[in-house]
Hints:
Layout: H1 2-10, E1 14-23, E2 34-41, E3 48-50, E4 59-61, H2 66-70, H3 76-79
Antiparallel strand pairs: 1-2, 3-4
Amino acid sequence: MARREAVEEAGLVLGRLLPITRYLPSPGGSDELVHLYLGSCDSEGAGGIHGLPDEGEDIRVHVWTWTRRWRGSRTVASATPRPSSPCSGWR
């Protein structure tokens, strides 16, 4: 499902998928279980508006560098991937 949604909602083909966590977004109110993954992809040329019009989706894709993502964050040091981190291969 993650691979299909990446194509549908961002126009991206995922390579390796690494599981990050699973969680209940509304414990006690729903039995929905969310599975969160980190996916690698070639984002060269990514952008634009994606989604299925018949589902009312209007998803705008923005590509940011790792540095830009954390610019202005006070937690850069604690959020920087470490060699043992599952996302340490990100550039």
